[in-house]
Amino acid sequence: xxxxxxxxxxxxxxxxxxxxxxxxxxxxxxxxxxxxxxxxxxxxxxxxxxxxxxxxxxxxxxxxxxxxxxxxxxxxxxxxxxxxxxxxxxxxxxxxxxxxxxxxxxxxxxxxxxx
Length: 115
What we know:
By secondary structure, the protein is mostly beta strands. The protein has strands at 2-6, 10-11, 17-24, 32-38, 45-50, 56-58, 66-71, 76-81, 90-98, 102-105, 109-113. The chain contains no helices and 11 strands. The strands form 2 sheets. Strands 2, 4, 5, 6, 9, 10 and 11 form a 7-stranded mixed β-sheet that branches. Strands 1-3-8-7 form a 4-stranded antiparallel β-sheet, with no helix packed on it.
């Protein structure tokens, strides 16, 4: 199982960014895909899940600003982030989760929001 995030960058406040996570080694269509983040000196924070049926869920801190989506044909999950602010600065991780699969994490991608 492998998960590879990309798309992290330095972005200005109120900017937008899209993260991608390409998965391999398991049946992508049956897994729930999760985005989480960890800011400096803070605990890991769950921010969004998209279930196998396509239903999304969001943390209150990102609801209305972030959009999670999945492309099963490309084994990829995305996180579209709008209206970014400095508090969104963190390493962003994706996770694949399933009852049989268990949990697998990617290596993370850095997002820095700063002027």
